[in-house]
Amino acid sequence: MREDVVPLLQRLVTCDTSNPPGNEAAAAAILEAYLDPFGIELERVAKDPARPNLVARLRGRESGPSVAFLGHLDVVKARREDWSVDPFAGVIRDGAVWGRGTVDMKCQVAATAVALATLAHEGFTPDGDVMVLLMADEEVGEAGVGAPFFVEARPDIRPDFIVGEGAGERYETESGPVYLVDRGVKASASAQVLVHGHPGDASLAGNGRSAIREAARLVERLASTQPTRRVPPEVEPLLAVADGHPELGAVAESLTTNVWRATTIEATGPTNVVPDRAEIGLYGAVLPGEERGDLERELRERLGDGTYELDVEKPEGGRTSGIDTPLFRAIESFVAEHDPDARVVPALGYGYSDCDTFRGAHGSVVYGFIPFRHADPAQNLQTKHGVDERVLVDDLLFQVDCARHVALTVGTT
Ligand SMILES: [Zn+2]
To answer: How close is the Cα of 395 to the center of ligand 1, in Å?
Structure first.
């Protein structure tokens, strides 16, 4: 029955949930059709009927903690001509299922659904509810129909322990193979740089002072100055194994600095006037605990002098969960059993995920962990949100086994 995960993932891939528009209802229907015969309780929680969140629940005895697997049904867009296969055909090739969302994160959606189905089929009754929570609109988040809506609409669904997306690739390091578990994510921040110039007739050489030219100088300056390095305590275990490893080194770099990128720029014409105003939008993935004032000081120092005003918004998110928990131990015991040479290393995620929303809403212990025992981690990092995304069938089965282990271990005392 664990082999169900392959056709189920293929069906989910052929159901195009590129966001926008998302169309998560079609993917929810596929999962409902699969889970319903096993007696799993199913419920859609929707602000927009075309974009539901889905709750699948194996009812517990209410005598112990509840566990949830958190996933999302939407995917980022894919252009057919960039790929070597049709990204929405669910092709199997070289022992892998290919297609948009196979890594991020329909693999885990299918694997946790199959795990729940097998547990129900075996007659397992957990101490607390075991749930699969599938959110809409994780990738864009602007429609207001996904996780932030869900936690507000259903405060009664507050799992004690949650496994969501994030780390889970297996890295070969000098001190042996490791799996990272994200116990938190960086916070998100944004800032606007309003750049002033002096207007003038654009036909006359050297006339005026262009705000666009000044904006370009500031963007270049931001990109070419080094951010201050600071090691949050949550990142120390990762640094101990990341030395000399290319991908882990890049992750460690992201987790010890505030990463600021210019992501929007705006100046309006007319085209024959030297512009006296331009606005740069900055996006920051910043370290947990950074305050607005810290960020403003850092940005002013990096941008240097110039004719601009800087406005930094308060960072959002960046919460972390403790690791002295039955869920962390369940992940460790799964790895010890199935991959005894490897170790589990707690770390942070470098980008946003819905995990943070659930940490913030209910104080749940939430980890990002989708285990990939066999995949080359570099390939995962390059293909998700990229081209030729694919997951090995062996990894899908590993993910089913991991979800079952977590549910059985945390779900019974
Ligand atoms: Zn994702």
So the answer is: 17
CA 58 – ligand 1 centroid, Å? 24
pLDDT at 353 over 90: no
Centre of ligand 1 to C-alpha 198, Å, is: 45
- The whole-angstrom distance between residue 155's C-alpha and the CA centroid of its chain comes to 22
Cα–Cα distance between 90 and 8 in angstroms, integer? Answer: 10
Q: 301-316 pLDDT, tens per residue?
A: 999 999 999 999 999 9
Residue 21 Cα to ligand 1 middle (Å) = 16
**Whole-angstrom Cα distance, residue 328 to residue 237?**
15
166: CA distance to ligand 1 center in Å?
8
How close is the Cα of 105 to the center of ligand 1, in Å?
5
Residue with tokens 């322990």: 161
β-pairing, 41-45 vs 67-72, is unpaired
Residue 87 contacts residue 389 (beta carbons within 8 Å): yes
CA of 66 to the centre of ligand 1 (A): 23
The 10s digit of each residue's pLDDT in 135-189 is 999 999 989 999 999 999 999 999 999 999 999 999 999 999 999 999 999 999 9
Task: List all residues 6 or more positions away from 403 whose beta carbon is below 8 Å from its beta carbon.
Answer: 69, 108, 111, 112, 115, 116, 163
Residues whose CB is less than 8 angstroms from the CB of residue 408 and which lie 6 or more positions away in sequence, other chains included: 119, 124
CB contact at 8 A, 84 and 90: no
Report the separation in Å between the CA atom of 142 and the middle of ligand 1, taken as the mean of its atom positions.
Answer: 15
Q: Which residue has the tokens 């995990």?
A: 355
Strand partners, 285: 188, 259
CA of 342 to the centre of ligand 1 (A): 25
Ligand 1 center to 20 CA (angstroms):
14
Amino acid at 320: T
CA of 100 to the centre of ligand 1 (A): 11
Rounded to an integer, the average pLDDT of 41-64 is 97
Q: Look-up: residue for tokens 């795990």?
A: 115
